[in-house]
Amino acid sequence: MSRFINEQDYFHGKADCTGVLLVNLGTPDAPDASSLRRYLHEFLSDPRVVEIPRWLWYPILNLAILPKRPAVSAQKYQQIWTEQGSPLLTISRQQQAAIQKELERRFQGPVKLELAMRYGNPSIRDSLLKLKAEGVRRLLILPLYPQYCAATTATTFDATFNELKRWRWMPELRTISHYHDHPGYIEALTQSLFEYWNQNPRGELLIMSFHGIPKRNLNLGDPYYCECQKTARLLAENLNLRSNEYRVTFQSRFGKAEWLQPYTDKTLASLAKEGIKSVDLICPGFAADCLETLEEIQVENRAIFLKAGGQAYQYVPALNTNYRHIQMLCDLIQQHTQGWAETSSDWNGQMLQKQAELTQKRAQDQGAKQ
Ligand SMILES: C=CC1=C(C)c2cc3[nH]c(cc4nc(cc5[nH]c(cc1n2)c(C)c5CCC(=O)O)C(CCC(=O)O)=C4C)c(C)c3C=C
Ligand SMILES: [Fe+2]
Ligand SMILES: [Fe+2]
């Protein structure tokens, strides 16, 4: 048996097909403790996510975290779970369908799109195999994280490359590291806020809350913090906000070490105590609503703000399937597949031309014979 995945249906002359792998973080299969244990085990065993040496981390993970956290997290997931399942997966599927539709409109040649989750399902392995079955020879990896972070973007690449190591015929590869300052992304966020403010009263302050990471990672050279700050600055400029009209904060702290500051929950409590009565929250780092926005921001942090004396707390949804968001993601795909998708349509064109020439020649030959 070969250690590599072979090309079962290989035949000469097959058209090169371009594939795009959309990847988000992943979510448990069900909102119960055993599904959470499986999901958290895979997620928190990733050395890109927790950078503590393995000999020290594994006992903490297996003896302190995995016996307790799954049940606590399951309760949180139950609050946001819908009939279709986890919001992150449902929204990602809707994004996939919308992007596929737009790609079919934009590209002449075949561009195959698959969705994968870094942890859980659909797995990167299964989605890559689907692309392989479609004859994909050029692959673009698009992690759905606007800001590059080793714990999210780099681990997506690691996992994809690890799978491709098993392929006999590796596709050509391109990766998208980030789109934190892409004009289309900033514009989609801006318009989403304006549309929200057109329909709802505007708060005194806009909080832009990003998922946190350990502060140590910033000192070790992870560009995530700086990319979050740049997104925030560009968004504020586009919105014409003065510096006292918005705050940048970091949410979802995990463990006891210091994470990026200021923390979202602590900021909300102190703002309320300082007399700020109304805030609007946006989470520009999340391409799709998920536990961290729907439960942590919408439920937990709202309670913190109101308990500390705040009166109005509004969460502006993630970009999800917003028209501008889908257009921007397709623009990104188009930019990063330059020379690929055109080549395959050129290839189609050349083939059609060759076929036409052959038909013409055959007709001429037949005419000459008669
Ligand atoms: C342990 C360290 C963690 C790091 C570092 C981290 C970075 C990070 N995460 C996201 C995006 C998401 N995280 C989500 C959930 C989640 N995150 C962690 C831990 C770290 N994240 C945990 C343990 C969990 C699971 C829930 C829980 O038990 O608290 C999600 C939501 C998934 C869902 O199912 O809805 C997202 C999305 C980013 C962008 C990031 C670094 C920039
Ligand atoms: Fe996280
Ligand atoms: Fe959280």
TrEMBL record:
PROSITE patterns: FERROCHELATASE. The keyword Transferase does not apply. It is found in: Cytoplasm. Pathway: Porphyrin-containing compound metabolism; protoheme biosynthesis; protoheme from protoporphyrin-IX: step 1/1. It catalyses: Fe-coproporphyrin III + 2 H(+) = coproporphyrin III + Fe(2+); heme b + 2 H(+) = protoporphyrin IX + Fe(2+). It comes from the Bacteria. Keywords: Cytoplasm, Heme biosynthesis, Iron, Lyase, Metal-binding, Porphyrin biosynthesis. GO terms for biological process: heme biosynthetic process. GO terms for cellular component: cytoplasm. Its EC number is 4.98.1.1. Belongs to the ferrochelatase family. Catalyzes the ferrous insertion into protoporphyrin IX. NCBIfam families: hemH. PANTHER family: FERROCHELATASE, FERROCHELATASE, MITOCHONDRIAL. This is Ferrochelatase.
